[in-house]
Task: inverse folding
């Protein structure tokens, strides 16, 4: 449960660190960042040491599928919104991915044709199988988008995924239990570059145990979706976290002025920076690395 406690602290720190008039870096006299270092789970570059898979003869990462690359995100570096970029929260995301509390899968079909279909969404481990996962069902079902393939590069060629809910669980919990946090993404667009063997998007350095990211992600979180996303352990909504507009402590209902139609997003400490279908929204951008896995239908 320690990770859950640090998750809560990290999200609170995210809200404080970007509050107007507060600095968390630069001048030592103004640095209010608490002295805390979260538990860091060493990465393994794609190996699944906990599950040997001796009964199936499989390995992780697996031999590449020549026709259907299947991968799991290993890193996710959030660039925007500002409330989700602090170092503690980023490290907790990294730990959750490496501990498989946060599983995000990608499958490509149509490789070699110039036009691929990308299927992406949250996943879960398949018991008794090495490096094997399956997509979660509704309400976390995957979405699809069409991609242009140029050599090892892939980029959106059609419409983005209109909506994808991406859950994150705390340590020791998993689907179908309630997640700790859900990212309600709209207009999701993914792009990037494969490694030459299609085992990675990006690369892993076994000497430094560090990832190089070669994937990009962009989308948005509408203020309305964020207001409807309650972070129970914090007693606040995601809208309160992103905007800095919170009401009475422990009462998420009055975050963001209680939601539409009476709210005024332009007046919030951190107002929305974009729109989705005319609704105020927060842009979300990130980079990522991924490694090959098996995805079971």
Result:
């Amino acid at each position: 449960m320690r990770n859950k406690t640090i998750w809560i602290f990290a999200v609170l720190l995210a809200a404080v660190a970007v509050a107007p008039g507060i600095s968390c870096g630069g001048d030592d006299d103004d640095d209010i960042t608490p002295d805390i270092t979260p538990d860091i789970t060493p990465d393994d570059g794609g190996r699944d040491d906990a599950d040997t898979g001796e009964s199936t003869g499989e390995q992780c990462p697996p031999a590449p599928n020549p026709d259907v690359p299947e991968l799991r995100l290993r890193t996710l570096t959030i660039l925007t919104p500002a409330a989700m970029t602090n170092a503690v929260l980023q490290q907790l995301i990294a730990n959750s991915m490496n501990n498989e509390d946060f599983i995000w899968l990608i499958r490509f079909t149509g490789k070699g044709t110039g036009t691929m279909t990308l299927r992406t969404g949250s996943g879960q481990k398949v018991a008794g199988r090495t490096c094997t996962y399956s997509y979660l069902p509704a309400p976390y079902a995957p979405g699809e988008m069409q991609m242009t393939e140029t050599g090892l590069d892939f980029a959106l060629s059609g419409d983005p995924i209109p909506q994808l809910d991406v859950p994150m669980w705390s340590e020791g919990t998993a689907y179908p239990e309630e997640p700790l946090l859900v990212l309600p993404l709209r207009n999701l667009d993914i792009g990037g570059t494969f490694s030459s063997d299609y085992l990675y998007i990006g690369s892993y350095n076994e000497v430094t145990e560090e990832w190089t990211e070669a994937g990009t992600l962009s989308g948005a979180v509408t203020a309305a979706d964020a207001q409807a996303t309650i972070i129970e352990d914090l007693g606040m909504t995601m809208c309160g976290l992103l905007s800095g507009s919170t009401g009475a402590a422990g009462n998420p209902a009055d975050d963001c002025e209680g939601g539409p139609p009476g709210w005024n997003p332009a007046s919030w400490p951190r107002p929305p920076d974009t729109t989705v279908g005319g609704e105020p929204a927060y842009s979300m951008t990130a980079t990522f690395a991924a490694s090959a896995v098996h995805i079971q239908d």
In short: Residues 2-17 form the longest helix (16 residues).
